[in-house]
Amino acid sequence: MKNIFKFSLLALFLGFVSCDDAIDIRQESELDEEVAYQTVDDLQTGLNGVYAAYGPDFGGNGAGDIILFNALFTDNIKRGINSSGQGNQEYNFILQPGTDFPNRLWSNRYAVINFSNRLLRAWERVAAGLTDENEIVRANHIKGQAIAMRALCHFDLLQYFSPNYQDDNAPGVIIMDFVPNVTETYQRNTTGEVFEFIKADLDEATGLLAGFTNPPYYINGDVVQAIRTRVALCEGDYETARTLSTDLATRFAPVQPEEYFAMFIDDATSDEEIFTLARVQGDNGVVSLFYANEATISGSPFFELSNSLFNAIPSGDIRRQVLVEPTSDISENIILIGKYRGNAADQQINDIKLIRGSEMYLIMVETMARAGMLNEAEQAMLAFRQTRNLSGTVFAPDYPTVDAALVDVLAERRIELAFEGHRYLDLKRLGTELGIGIDRDDADCASFSAPCNLPAGDYRFTLPIPRNEVRANPSIQQNPQY
Amino acid sequence: MRSKFTWIMTLLLAFSFGFSFAQEKTVTGTVSDEVGPLPGASVLVKGTQRSVQTDINGRYSINANVGDVLEYSYVSYQSQSVTVGASNTIDVVLTATVLDPIVKDVYRTTTERKSVSAVKVLSVEAVEDRANANILQSLQGQVAGLNIATGSGQPGADVTIILRGIGSINGNIEPLFVVDGIPVDEDGFRSINQNDIASYQILSDAAATSIYGNRGANGVIVITTKKGSYGQKLGIRYTSQFGFTQLQPLNMELMSSRQLLYFQKENGVGLGSTLTDAEIDARAAQTNTYWADIFFRTGVTKSHDIAITSGSENTNNFTSLGYFEQDGVFLNTNLKRFTVRNNFQGKSENGKFNYGMNLNANFSRSSGIDGAGSNAVFFAPFRAALHGLPYLSPYNPDGSITIDGGLTPGDPNGVIVDNVPYVLLNSARMNTDIEDEIKILASFNADYNFAEHFTAAMQMGVDFSNFKTLEILHPDSLLGPFQVDQDAEFGGIQQEASSRDFRFNSLFSVNYQNTFAEKHNVSISAYVEYNKAHLDGINFTQLGLDPRLVGSGAAFIAGDTFEDLDGNPATPDTQPYIPTVGSTKLEEGLFSYFGNVDYDYDGRFGLTATVRRDASFRFIDDNRWGTFYSVGGRWNIDTESFMDGSSFNLLKLRGSFGTSGNQRISNTQYAALNLYRSLYGAGGGYNGSVSTVPTVIGNPDLRWEQTEQTNIGVDFGVWENRLTGTVDVYRKLTTDLFQSTPVSPVNATTAISTNIGAMENEGVELTLKYTLYNKNDWRIEVNGNTSYNKNKIRDLPESFEGVVNDGGSTALLEGESFGTFYVVRYAGVNPSNGNPLFYTAEGGLTETLNDADRVSTGKSYIPVWQGGFGTFISYKRFEFSTQWAYVADIYRNNLDYAELEETNVLDDGSNRVVTTANAWKNPGDITSVPRIGNAFGAVDYINSTDRYLEDASYLRLRNIMLGYTFSPELLKETPFTGLRFFVQGENLLTFSSWRGWDAEGGFRSTDRGNYPTPKIYTLGAVINF
């Protein structure tokens, strides 16, 4: 009896020990999707995450996204005085599935797409419960931006990974319009399918973004139109590209030199900006793509502007003042990259002018020429150069043939859009068509002991499907010659 | 009627017998050997869990019934059993050289004779009075299979411990540590006082560790601290040590000023190229700095400990106070420690209820220096001490040692690679890097023999650590003005972090113990265990300090201060001094119940079996619970009749098989806390606004990593136990390994943690001890242990096709050991052009480095062989001992040497080793150093080739000690009851081909600029009152 009592007491005692609080643990910081997204304001924070993740300017110390790669792999960069070998591989045209850039681009853009799709999934749930008219409009604007970002990322990927984006049947990239299951893998869609998907997204975004004006840091109807213009140009739908670009080139006309300089050097808002990525203190500093510290000769530049680009810029052109940092020592062949010099808040940070009116203007010139309007194209190009000119005479364009016009457009784009993530793609698109490959100045390629030429149409104008995809998805179709 | 009467009578008789048998009394006495009293000897009531240890004077007090058998045991002494009779005093004299100590883990107590498991007991004498700040450092080389690596000379630095090989790729690899029954943080040993420890036990096989199932997969180390004894007089023991720490010798030849300047001149770079021969000679005559002499120093080490033991009839007490201080050999590095311990035990009059409380509070302050192994040359102090240019003078014009090399803080032209030693010397002298730890270990235990054969027990323990770090980069130091913004008015950074780590553990158990038919001893136990751990912390970083007030919060420049950093009044001013703050709060938890059966037949055979169910908060649903079990058996062959007359005193065959689990997906504590859930969190904002992004892509399939182990062992003692030893052979197989598996980047991540693959460890362990001579006041003993462990990765995620290599020098390779170097083989220098040559994978020669040419070298940075040996000689009252440790078949990349032999660039602010001058110059030169300006730098050779992959095996004299104990006769007129003096040295001798200061580099794949472990000399005294 006594023992039974003792045993029961013991059992009671053991009963005090409950296991639940030891094994059902949720850390205080945990947030699941239901809780994360409850209001339109929450959706807006999700959209901020989509914008923040998109990183054409990301990287540093020799590795980087499209802003660096387009300059490094081509003819816009030479080795800097404080180089310790940064970017050596890319400069040597070494491009393999394990190379940093294709891995970086593929993961960054698909991460943004994943973030967008997660936001859109939560959007369906939150939007279903909205009644207030203003809230519904706000919600639609958020959805429109998310869809447009998804389209932009698919388009970025397609340009780099499709071996021929004017062939609908060429392998494209994976269309992701849903949140994938981590255990599944997916095959590449065709280029045609991806273009259709992008255009459908852009159309839907246009509808949703009606009435949304918040330039230039967020995607509004004009930004969607600009992306649509690029898409049309890339597809070879030059008429659409011409119509759309003409409209944008008028409304976002290239600005005068003083404003142009202030736009880059002081991050001052300009009428030419269509879409600019806001960069504030704490964000990735674009200056770190080229310098270890600040953008001056004592900031340890490991990349410099190439001789061939320097020689291509007319001396009286405002773009020379923007592109060449003033502490450069030209006599010693130290040409510092000056487009990004940091802003008042941080010596390494600048806004990223992703789409500008001048790009649309040059698309207009190109598509005019392609439409046979060679005189108009000449006139437009002359006017453009005059806008950029400070002193001296302007090099007058002369377009006896369409190709001559295209060659000139390619050269002008190189100067106007230098270090903005275009050169490699321009050489892929126009260079292949015109038979122009990478042709570096001897002094530039010697600085890296690297090859000076890459012929037009080389397989390396298409990126390999990167190792981080192939590892998880070994059956994915690889691009030719990789 | 009559029969009924008989029956009642019988019953009464039985009761009265039972009564008399159960009549308990306190037995006291002294345990001694031929020389004198033995402190710390164990007294166990046979067949129960009751045991006590003798105090400093060898006295003990234990409750026992008449007829109970008391077992007296002491490490390396023959056990004795005495049956309790009428007398209340039992004095025992133990004979030396028998190995049969008590084996006691948290859950079970047994003698080594009856233990079925692979448990190695380390006598505290073997490590007592050693001068290491971290108690675990002293265990190196002492236990077969226990691999201890100290990767730093910072006093009290954490050590990495591997028992029987690496058992996990990503998960936890270190054993579970249990101090007085409480599982404790395996990384927090610098605060524990070595002199408080009574014994170490190392549990390796499944039979021993399975009972620790949820954390025992990597083995268990049980540490027991000293206790008082019942009925003992007050005893006081005072121990003191004083000594020095010193840098070990450098095994490489650096260039002198003259050599380096001429070498520079010859190659047209650096200062040497600007000087004439006469100027070089003048400079070299004036300045030839060996920077290690400037950065390193002889440190002081000292300690004081007082231990007080006392005991009354029903309570006893052990109280100790300790102070320890040790300077590191590098400038401004130091550890100070203050410890207090009180171990209390009490019991009821009848001895059926026992309880105890251990309370241990420690405070330690470690002043250290960051940047060991860093590639940031301006923040790598140890690298600067080795690489600094010899032609720079360390002196001011007045002959004192400079603290800034004449450079001006904030001058960017001063911070150039040539001036690295000045910058680092300045940082070492001016900056602050302090880590304070308050560690409290507290435990309470009680057991109650509430019914015949039944005992209920409970145990609760707390491991509490408060950790506080303070780092100040002084605004007036050479680097200070750059910390905020070059153009800001104030520089400097102060970072502080404070965290509390609270770990609670409770264990309830019921035990049934009985003997049937005199020979069948059975013990059955059931347990419930609960573990919970909480970490919370805050931290901040202040940018901008007022140099007049550095060290206090008053120095902080207000965050709302505006400054015009770009010197342009047109742009708005900015706020450069905004501090950053952080806060964390994390929890962990485990819950288990388990049972254990022990069976012994007449001391001849024994069986043990354990089954347990464990739940971890890290997994969900069916994966949450893991089931682990083990069975073990022994055969005490020496008890068999056919062994009569043999020279074996002990011959025992053991075998066990079982499983244990690992739930720590990541090797660090408080990490990988919720990987089965998909989660969101605040991410990098856009345009200054807050953002929400996915942070974890959940994997609900995560489950326990499981290790199964088979062990066969033999324990033996022959020739009156003059030779004793243990041999163990084992095989461990870890399945469901925690590994990251690649996933498509469309998931917004490129890898997730999964359970995939398998890894194997196979090995042999041997421990021997031999008494060579024991006559005429002489005693000579030798002991040794060695272990061999072969690790093999059996399976990796399929998509890796057998090789996981991220471009570094090592890879995970199927069929090879963990940590295997996977590099291109260096073939030497091409005599025709001076370029380096490499072997292609097929064996051809090439001048280009290609990942496709990487091959497995079969060399790993985890040693295959490990062990130690020692001698002990005593003559009368003198004693002399040596303890050697070795590791073999271990390799490491020597990046220090690679950088010192760099010929890719020369003008990099680093000195060179003299062999660099052998660099290829002319066609036809046969040399091992490629031409100046060859395409590959030190890091290329390290990451991709085996050029600097060195054998890091070593044999080291870990400890040497000479002691003298005064005879009691001499002390009769003094207040002392005992007096002993000793001198000792740590790490005095090392044999290794490793080129550097310290062959012992931790379990690192690459060594660069690390803090070498010191030599330590101390003189000590032990005084008993």
What's this, in brief?
The complex is a heterodimer of chains A (482) and B (1025). By secondary structure, chain A is mainly α.
Question: How would you describe this protein?
Answer:
The complex is a heterodimer of chains A (482) and B (1025). Chain A is built from 20 helices and eight strands. Chain A is mostly helical and 482 residues long. Chain A has a single domain (38-55, 69-464), classed as Serine Threonine Protein Phosphatase 5, Tetratricopeptide repeat (Alpha Horseshoe). In chain A, strand 1 (59-60) and strand 2 form a beta hairpin. Chain A starts with a helix and ends in a 10-residue tail after the last helix. By secondary structure, chain B is mostly beta strands. Among the domains of chain B are: 22-96, Carboxypeptidase-like, regulatory domain (Immunoglobulin-like), CATH 2.60.40.1120; 257-289, no CATH class. Helices cover 8% and strands 46% of the residues of chain B. In chain B, helix 3 (257-267) packs antiparallel against helix 4 (277-286) and helix 6 (381-387) crosses helix 7 (420-430). Classes of the chains: A mainly alpha (482), B mainly beta (1025).
